[in-house]
Write a structure and sequence with these properties.
The chain is α/β, with parallel strands linked by helices. Helices cover about 35% and strands about 10% of the residues. The protein has helices at about 35-45, 50-65, 75-85, 105-110, 135, 155-165, 215-225, 235-240, 260-270, 275-290, 325-335, 350-355, 365-375, 385-400; strands at about 70-75, 95-100, 115-120, 140-145, 170-175, 180, 185, 195, 210-215, 295, 315, 375.
Length: about 400
């Protein structure tokens, strides 16, 4: 539904007509007939757990990322947890993470028994502010976890230059960054391990799921064993056509493995990754052109030599030019029929991390400012140009209507 002629109407939240009658969901996935048919074939095969489709997705992704190993798991969170354990992170250790990130990035550090040490982000890129890293490193630091926010690559060259001489492990949170290239290098082939998300809103999705890539043979073996109860042989090997084989419990592992039902989706999602990226790129250009001049700051341009995965399109609202706060803008867009997201409320502002570590908003000024102003707009391969036009009209209507 295109509603170009209604941009100057009364806001729906104040009694006017909404731009859309049906809600445009934020982050709805694009699912093709190939995925549906593959799921049906999986059901008919009788092999629903970890099996041949998981192995196929691992191999396809390993090649795509340019890594030696790829291990499929039930979430990116599981991948980060296991990668930290593979790095030997435990009680008494510290791990540096950005303050502006999803809870999982820091939660897994706590689950490993270590202490997350927060660093502020660069206000422009919303990625880890590398200039702050030296002041966050101590003799207890064991690893750094850079987050490629929204699909924009971190400055991996500078991060590695700080980490390598100190013997620190670099575990990348690439939940937003499947297509990302950092200074000519594919994300997934740079750090000691890279953790990807296949959650339902992600650029490649399996409903729930994730992948860890690494070039380290020992790490890959640890990831595989620890992801399935610590067993010496995984379910595929134990129950494949070659017959039952006994296993040994080598460690108290976890239930983090991916199922073939999930991989059935991912195989075809990955095959269309470039096609879907181009669709999001077109929508991104539409947004950039349409929102110039509004009381909001657009995402920073893509850096030369890099590839932005364009997972999130985030505006930073200019609250000094608006008569309402960010949450009121979200509510108004909802009334216009447009779903939005917030990425993120920084972790130092949440009760657990704020109270446990005695953190204050002023400790991380860039993350605090972004947390108040950021709003993410619908951006997925499922969006039609008509949908994008509705987003444009609604955003312009709301921000113009609330302008001072």
């Amino acid at each position: 539904m295109t509603a170009t002629g209604r941009a100057n109407g009364k806001l729906a939240i104040e009694g006017g007509s909404p731009i859309r009658g049906e809600m445009l969901l934020f982050g709805a996935p694009a699912i093709g007939e190939e995925e549906i048919e593959e799921v049906v074939r999986t059901l008919r095969s009788g092999w629903l757990g970890t099996g041949p489709r998981v192995k196929r997705l691992e191999e396809d992704f390993r090649i795509y990322a340019g890594a030696k190993h790829a291990v499929a798991l039930n979430s990116c969170t599981a991948g980060m947890h296991l990668a930290l354990l593979a790095a030997g992170v435990g009680p008494g250790d510290e791990v540096v993470v950005p303050s502006l990130t999803f809870a999982a990035t820091a939660n897994v550090v706590v689950h490993a028994g270590a202490t997350p040490v927060f660093a502020d982000v660069d206000r422009r890129t919303m990625n880890l502010d590398v200039s702050q890293l030296p002041s966050r490193l101590t003799p207890r630091t064991k690893a750094i976890v850079p987050v490629h926010f929204a699909g924009r690559p971190c400055d991996m060259e500078r991060i590695l230059a700080l980490a390598r001489p100190r013997g620190l492990r670099v575990i990348e949170d690439a939940a937003h960054a499947i297509e990302t290239v950092a200074a000519g290098r594919k994300v997934g082939s740079i750090g000691d391990a890279t953790c990807f998300s296949f959650y339902v809103t992600k650029n490649v999705m399996t409903g729930e799921g994730g992948m860890v890539t690494t070039d380290d043979d020992a790490w890959a073996e640890k990831l595989r064993i620890s992801s399935l109860h610590g067993l010496s042989r995984d379910a595929w090997k134990r129950y494949s056509g070659s017959g039952f084989a006994h296993y040994e419990v080598l460690m108290p592992g976890f239930k983090y493995n991916m199922a073939d039902l999930q991989a059935a989706l991912g195989i075809h999602q990955l095959a269309r990754v470039a096609q879907n990226a181009e669709k999001r790129r077109r929508i991104w250009r539409i947004y950039d052109e349409a929102f110039a001049g509004l009381p909001a700051e657009l995402p920073a341009p893509e850096e030369p030599g890099s590839v932005h995965a364009r997972h999130l399109y985030t505006l930073l609202l200019d609250l000094d030019r608006l008569r309402v706060d960010r949450d009121a803008v979200i509510a108004a867009l909802k009334e216009e029929g447009i779903g939005t997201g917030v990425h993120f409320i920084a972790l130092h502002l949440h009760p657990y991390y704020r109270d446990r570590f005695g953190l204050r908003p002023s400790d991380f000024p860039a993350s605090t400012e972004i947390s108040r102003r950021t709003i993410s707009l619908p951006l997925s391969a499922k969006l039609s140009e008509e949908d994008a036009a509705d987003v444009v009209v609604a955003v312009r209507k709301v921000l113009t209507g609330y302008s001072l």
